[in-house]
Design a protein that fits this description.
Residues 1-18 form the signal peptide. The chain is an all-beta fold. It is 1% helix and 46% strand. The protein is globular and about 95 Å long.
């Protein structure tokens, strides 16, 4: 525990003016102490009576000797460890922590930040100010450090205090523009289909720090009427100030619904149920009716008279898979419809009065259509796979606008799309198109003229945006041209690729900047940085001292360890099967490795899979089993103890010659922390539901060794209540240091949870994926796959700040 010392010294010898924190961007943002300009020596000749002089006229002490020169005193220095200068927080206060020293070895007598004296228990070698208030905006925190001889140095840092950005999008499907309820916003139907707890959200559209901020208009369990299950479409009924939401329902046919949401009260009312497999929705304001594309056993485009709900629906035209509908604003009796049924896959022009349809053009994989407001009813935009095409409705001709065509050519800069669910033209700017990507969990803005793509949100840091940051590792070897940094693997899966980014950790304006190291280059969209095999299913990442990255890629017996050169971006297989199926490296083959740990001192890499732990030679790729035991054949076991079935994360405890292994949870609370002896292969449970006290780990995903405190830090990705859990390595006892615990009753989501650490909790929809500990700075860096953010967590206070990416 810190104790306060030096307060009398502050009162007796330190008289300074401090600049308080506040709005504005003043201050250097530098976290290292600045030395005051030393006073100039007095050049004047000593006065005649100014002291004793010897016979030669030299000043002396009366005995003919020359007095010693006064010893120079170097000013003390202080540095900030947390928060990183230039980071963001949603908290109204923050803990500040750092170190201090004196070049002359003088005692440090005080450290203050914004006039608040720091606590210390080691003479200010390390110090902390537990809580400083932060007004909204950019705040400059000013500090002073003083030594025993009265020398003073200053230091400063900046932190931006921002609003909580709201819940992350999980699977945005439908879009509608609403300008009638205050500021312009997008209504988004978010289909959290995994849990059956979908929501209707609003995204702010005003430029500024809150661009893309998310707020919930309605969600399951809020008591405002019939619950959503899987909302997949939304339309605005401006005259009634309500949203019409298409809800897919449960998996069984016949559960689909149309639900009205009052935008003033958020009350939800059922308008229609019994839909088989509803896919699309459009609102015809002129005739006050809804058009619904229903598949499954229905295979029809339906019309619902909103003035006569009791009469039910009527069939407009048949359609096998009506995935999208859009009405002609100049002709309410005309609509466009995409039918994605296999062997049909076409765009149709629908006459709503005559109840007939005409095929306009065929596509390989059509999904969404929208009339182009600049086309006067003659142009539309259709998505085909991961691309947008402009379609001439008179002759069916197509022009690629944005994305990847069948030849692999990409039009437009920015991120590639993965799963386009809806598109919507901006009514205030016909050259701008909004796009919902359900897989990448983002809403994008597309410039129709250039094809360029960007995310509808504010990103912290310059460079390519994160979309699915999964793995993170410290990048060693800081130098003049390589600032302290991290490597983040952004894993978008499948054909959209996996990219490696270097993230700058230099305090100040460069904090959080991202540079591509290997993979798809959003600024040069038809290029891949680096040659060699592209990643297919990366699972873990470590970095060697020379900067070479080693990534675990692939599944089952196709799993390999790929080496990635930081300078060139080139990728090559270090160990495992190559493209021809030949094994690189000798020894037993991999079969589903899931986690890695580096043992640089012994030039080897550890790789764990179900029931087996390998040591991999870093030069040859040779594999050696050092622990094996799946509980199936004791005769082949190496080491004793329970088998590990899902080794999600490894940490090397070199001092104790063991690996710490996090075994995943197939059900909440079933995860384990285990040790594996490197000499024996023995496996021992350190903590699980019956070993050690404290909250049971719910969905643990990552483990980091905090050797200084004889503990590990486990990233527990409990849905809605994510946390960092400290586990004592002697007892297995567990305590939450940042995020939510389970509360006194020990039950998840029961309402009595306690929050640890300052700033907003991890996003309620967070998908925390990985963490790495900077032991020297005592900061845990965490990736959130859902919001696309990199978060720094102070492991002493539990405070959380955004370092790079989208607001968390």
């Amino acid at each position: 525990m810190f104790v306060v010392i030096g307060r009398w010294l502050l009162a007796a010898s330190l008289v300074v003016w401090l600049t308080g924190c506040g709005g504005g961007s003043g201050g250097s943002g530098d976290s290292v102490a600045e030395n005051p300009t030393p006073s100039e020596p007095d050049p004047s000749t000593p006065e005649e009576d100014g002291g004793d002089e010897n016979e030669d006229g030299d000043e002396g002490d009366g005995d003919g000797s020359t007095p010693p020169e006064e010893e120079a005193n170097e000013p003390p220095v202080a540095s900030i460890q947390f928060p990183l200068s230039g980071s963001r927080t949603t908290g109204a206060s923050i803990s500040v922590r750092g170190t201090a020293s004196d070049p002359d070895g003088d005692a440090i007598t005080s450290v203050t930040v914004n006039g608040v004296l720091a606590d210390t228990d080691d003479g200010f070698a390390s110090w902390r100010v537990p809580s400083l208030s932060l007004p909204a905006g950019t705040d400059t925190l000013e500090g002073l450090v003083q030594d025993a001889r009265g020398e003073v140095s200053s230091f400063s840092l900046t932190v931006e205090q921002v609003e909580n950005p709201g819940p992350a999008l999980i699977a945005p499907h439908g879009l509608a523009f609403d300008s009638a309820n205050g500021e312009p916003r997008l209504l988004v139907a978010d289909d959290t289909s995994t849990w059956g707890a979908g929501a209707l959200l609003a995204l702010e559209l005003n430029d500024g720090p809150n661009l893309g901020r998310r707020s919930v208009i309605g969600q399951k369990g809020d008591g405002n009427g019939i619950d959503f299950y899987q909302p997949v479409g939304v339309e605005l009924d401006t005259a009634a100030n309500r949203a019409l939401v298409l809800d897919f329902g449960a998996l069984a046919y016949g559960n689909g619904k149309v639900i009205a949401v009052d935008l003033a009260t958020q009350a939800r009312t059922l308008l229609l149920d019994g839909l088989n497999f509803p896919l699309s929705l459009a609102f015809d304001a002129t005739n006050n009716r809804a058009l619904i594309g229903d598949s499954g056993n229905a295979d029809k485009l339906l019309a619902l008279d909103l003035d006569d709900l009791a009469s039910g629906t009527s069939t407009v035209v048949s359609a096998g898979f009506p995935s999208s509908i859009d009405l002609d604003s100049g002709n309410p009796d005309r609509a466009l419809m995409v039918d994605g049924l296999v062997n049909v896959e076409a765009l149709f022009d629908v006459d709503l009065t005559a109840k007939s349809k005409t095929k306009i053009a065929t596509f390989a994989d059509p999904d969404v259509v929208a009339f182009d407001p600049a086309g006067g009813g003659d142009l539309a935009v259709v998505t085909d796979g991961d691309a947008f095409f402009s379609v001439n409705l008179n002759d069916g001709s197509k022009t690629l606008l944005s994305g990847t065509d069948s030849e692999g050519v990409i039009i437009g800069k920015g991120p590639r799309f993965r799963s386009i669910e809806d598109i919507l033209f901006d009514p205030t700017d016909p050259s701008r198109l909004w796009v919902a990507d359900g897989y990448l969990k983002k809403v994008y803005v597309v410039d129709v003229n250039s094809g360029d793509r960007s995310v509808l949100a504010n990103s912290w840091g310059q460079g390519p945006n994160f979309f699915a940051p999964t793995q993170v590792a410290l990048l060693p070897g800081a130098s003049a041209d390589l600032s302290p940094s991290l490597v983040v693997l952004d894993d978008i899966r499948s054909w959209s690729g996996s990219e490696f980014y270097r993230v700058d950790l230099t305090p100040g304006s460069a904090l959080g900047d991202r540079v591509l190291l290997s993979g798809f280059d959003a600024d040069n969209p038809n290029q891949i940085r680096g040659s060699g095999p592209e990643l297919s299913w990366p699972e873990d990442l470590v970095v060697e001292a020379d900067g070479r990255m080693l990534v675990l890629d692939g599944e089952d017996d196709e799993a390999v360890i790929v080496a990635v050169d930081t300078q060139s971006g080139d990728r090559s297989i270090l160990s495992g099967k190559d493209a021809a199926g030949d094994l690189i490296g000798a020894g037993p083959a991999f079969n589903g490795i899931q986690s890695l740990a580096l043992d640089a001192a012994n030039n080897r890499l550890f790789a764990a899979q179900r029931g087996a732990l390998f040591a991999v030679d870093l030069e040859t790729g040779d594999r050696t089993l050092i622990s094996a035991g799946a509980g199936e054949d004791p005769a082949t076991d190496i080491g004793s103890g329970p088998a590990f079935t899902a080794p999600l994360s490894l940490a090397l405890d070199a001092d104790n010659n063991r690996l710490l292994l996090l075994n995943g949870a197939y059900s909440p609370g079933s995860g384990k922390l285990m040790s594996v002896g490197l000499a024996t292969g023995d496996r021992v449970v350190i903590a699980d539901s019956v070993t050690g006290a404290g909250d049971v780990m719910q969905y643990p995903v990552s483990v980091s060794l905090d050797a200084a405190n004889n503990r590990v830090l486990v990233l527990d990705a409990l849905s809605g209540k994510s946390a960092i859990v400290a586990v004592d390595l002697d007892t297995g006892d567990r305590s939450v240091i940042s995020g939510y615990d389970l509360g006194p009753d020990g039950e998840r989501n029961s309402g009595d949870e306690q929050l640890f650490g300052g700033g907003s909790p991890f996003n309620p929809e967070a998908d925390l994926a990985d963490a790495v500990l900077d032991a020297g700075q005592r900061i845990l860096y965490v990736t959130d796959n859902a919001s696309g953010s990199l978060i720094a967590v102070d492991i002493d206070s539990g405070d959380r700040v955004l370092v790079s990416g989208f607001a968390f």
